[in-house]
Amino acid sequence: MIAKTPEEVALQHIIERLNNFKPRQRWWRRWVKRSAVAIILRDLNDHIEILMIKRADREGDPWSGHMAFPGGRMDRGDVTGLRTAMRETEEEIGIYLEKAGHCIGRLSDIVSRPHSGRQPMVVTPYVFKLHTAVGIDANHEVAEAVWIPLSFLMDVEQRETMEFGRGKLKMTLPCYFYGKRRIWGMSLRMLDELLSLV
Q: How many domains would you assign to the chain?
């Protein structure tokens, strides 16, 4: 019997625990703006990787240039958040999740500030596992797409801190630096919940 790598074992734990996981759902989310994202996992040469995108620099976009997961605002035609995550992934990076993979679960809702207005926005992350190789065909909203090893994110030595300021407010926040790419904020909160299932 071939021994599994720590990453393969971690992925198996994630899949098993997502089956029984009860994510926090905001009961009031149907009355506010909603978004959904796709956290996509792949098994490549016995190594597990997570797909992240770097958002293109756009004036007026509070998440401009940030590392994130493919996703976006729920349209009227989207019956569920899952459909939103799948549609936005196809639009942003050309991956048709309905054929290339399957959803293995969802994580807790995260409350965020929207692009405009005072009303909060609820973001729901859905976790997918690919079962076939895919190519990336990024649209104008995406500067780049990068596969990040799960082993990198599981290594506590890789965790760093950053200084964040808005007006007079100054904070020290956790982050990762994957090369020159900084992973923090909402995306890091999603990753932390995912890794807590390992």
A: 1
Q: Rounded CA gap, 11 and 154, in Å? A: 12
For 45-186, strand residue ranges (E) read 47-55, 67-68, 71-73, 101-106, 110-112, 121-130, 142-149, 159-166, 169-178, 181-183
User: Contact, 107 vs 39, CB < 8 A?
Assistant: yes
- Which domain does 165 fall in, by range? 6-195
Residue 1 lies in a domain: no
Residue count of the chain, please give it.
Answer: 198
Residue 48 bridge partners (DSSP): 43
Note whether residue 29 is domain-resident: yes
Quick check: 115 pLDDT over 60? no
Nearest Cα residue to 172 out of 184, 180, 181, 157? 184
- pLDDT reported for residue 61: 63
pLDDT band at 63 (very low <50, low <70, confident <90, very high): low
> 44 lies in a domain?
yes
Q: Quick: pLDDT tens for 140-174.
A: 999 999 999 999 999 999 999 999 887 788 899 99
Report the pLDDT value the prediction gives residue 174, as an integer from 0 to 100. Answer: 94
Q: d(Cα 44, Cα 53) in Å, to the nearest integer?
A: 18
For residue 150 the two structure tokens come to 């799960």
CATH number of the structural domain spanning residue 58? 3.90.79.10
